[in-house]
Amino acid sequence: xxxxxxxxxxxxxxxxxxxxxxxxxxxxxxxxxxxxxxxxxxxxxxxxxxxxxxxxxxxxxxxxxxxxxxxxxxxxxxxxxxxxxxxxxxxxxxxxxxxxxxxxxxxxxxxxxxxxxxxxxxxxxxxxxxxxxxxxxxxxxxxxxxxxxxxxxxxxxxxxxxxxxxxxxxxxxxxxxxxxxxxxxxxxxxxxxxxxxxxxxxxxxxxxxxxxxxxxxxxxxxxxxxxxxxxxxxxxxxxxxxxxxxxxxxxxxxxxxxxxxxxxxxxxxxxxxxxxx
Length: 277
Known about the structure:
Number of strands: 7
CATH topology: Glycerol-3-phosphate (1)-acyltransferase
Structural class: alpha/beta
Strand order of the largest sheet: 1-7-6-2-5-3-4
CATH class: Alpha Beta
CATH architecture: 3-Layer(aba) Sandwich
Distance between the termini: 26 Å
Number of helices: 9
Shape: globular
Order of helices and strands: HHEEHEHHEHEHEHEH
Radius of gyration: 18 Å
Strand content: 5-15%
């Protein structure tokens, strides 16, 4: 019952915030009011869901513009990232997200970019706009899997998603996300208890592929994120789940995907450590 009630609250919060962002954009064209409203929505979404968000590695974030490359688990990923970063965050997403009634228009008003992957001219336009944002010191998030994971595993990274990183020359920062697939599973709107994690990894070095081909950048970022996924799974135990013992959980693999995170989420025993939000 509580999960259903939280789900209703999140739906109403999203609708109200979308309306506020659109009104703010219309009242102050060219301002950042819509961006601020959607940033507030992300933080309120995480709080209203009753989740604890841990943020780690923020010292790895470059001072200027950067391409943040994250794995994609759930609709919760966007609010997690909006909550985690002290600077404005923009998203580069597929056109379908921008077509969501009300919410899609609000995200566009907040400066997020939507691209039709089947239209080369639209891709060129997107690269131009995203490049301008990076030169202006903004953070741009890319989800290279192209879709959410059903079980928390890390899917294949599409090299095309790294065209922006290759052409802009901006730092490429891998970001590992965990917990979203348990908080709101794919195909569901019901809220479940979960620990959420945003872990910012060091930017790619030239030796790892920075400045190289799209394929090399994609392989290097995916290897980093898989490493963090495996590390999180290996260090988690059933003792992280209230009421259970301390037997280590087993890391399994699905065909075409790798490293589903453990069912226990982020360790509740770490709640006193620095980085909670």
